[in-house]
Design a protein that fits this description.
The protein is mainly alpha-helical. It has a domain of about 35 residues. The longest helix is centred in the middle third of the chain and has 32 residues. It is rod-shaped. About 0% of the residues are buried. It comes from Sphingomonas longa. This is Lipoprotein.
Length: about 90
């Protein structure tokens, strides 16, 4: 009877050792997982980057259109103004 009562009490100090051993065993896998996360691009990150790229392109087109219209108001006989604004040409 006494042995059954002392069993859990004797195992209490080993709980920290088991926890530490588990942490040591898991560490290489956690490091490898982080490395994979850092080297790959998630779909969310890819979408965010594409959206940022498109917003910059739209802002650039708007700026070019405003400059074109301003230039045509000052000099309407310019050859480009007669043809009209062709739009933004994307360059990668």
């Amino acid at each position: 009877m006494r042995l059954k009562l002392l069993g859990p009490i004797l195992l209490l100090p080993l709980g920290g050792c088991i926890s530490t051993a588990t942490s040591i065993v898991k560490a290489p896998f956690q490091v490898a997982g982080k490395a994979v996360d850092w080297t790959t691009t998630s779909q969310e990150e890819s979408d965010r980057n594409y959206g940022r790229k498109m917003r910059k392109a739209e802002a650039r087109e708007g700026k070019e259109r405003r400059e074109f219209e301003k230039r045509c108001r000052k000099n309407p006989d310019d050859g480009d103004c007669r043809r009209g604004y062709d739009g933004f040409v994307a360059r990668d």
